[in-house]
Specification:
Length: 165
């Protein structure tokens, strides 16, 4: 059985490895260079156990198989009640419902915080991610055409938004 729990500092190496797969092998992350554990440790230090910005991991048979987090949408304080959500699953766990489990958990937690909107930016094509977000209440707000360049080609980004009551 897969469980979701708050991430801890000891999860950072697994989170880094999972995320780096998507950086190195796909267009879905616009990061060009893989992260080091030290970089991700510094990133993780900005998250807390309460509030709008949280990190959760999915654990299956003792291994971290996915991560989801909410981060600051924009640096201006008027945007504070809007967060950007991210969900990343280990390629070996794709198709097991880990992404849904993680993102649904994160959205449930965010519903108890002072969050008005969640935004997701999805590099296209990525039908499974778009479908997951739609099923969890996100709606498409638009597409930024060819705004990212990776692997010597341009990629578009679908902007999705989910409202909280």
């Amino acid at each position: 059985m897969t469980e979701v729990r708050p991430a801890t500092a000891s999860d950072v190496p697994a989170i880094t490895a999972i995320y780096n797969h998507w950086i190195n092998e796909t267009h879905v992350s616009f990061d060009a260079d893989p992260h080091t554990v030290e970089e991700r440790t510094e990133w993780f230090s900005h998250y807390r156990d309460t509030g709008r910005h949280r990190v959760f991991v999915a654990v299956h048979e003792g291994d971290v198989v996915g991560v989801t987090y909410s981060s600051r949408f924009r640096p201006k304080s008027s945007y504070d009640t809007t967060v950007e959500t991210t969900v990343v699953v280990d390629p070996g766990a794709l198709g097991l419902g880990v992404g849904r489990l993680l993102l649904n958990h994160l959205l449930g937690v965010l519903a108890t915080e002072d969050v008005h909107r969640a935004v997701a930016l999805i590099a296209l094509p990525n039908d499974p991610s778009v479908s997951l977000h739609e099923q969890l209440g996100y709606r498409t707000m638009g597409i930024y055409d060819e705004v990212g360049r990776k692997f010597d080609r341009f990629w578009s980004v679908q902007v999705m938004e989910r409202a909280f009551a």
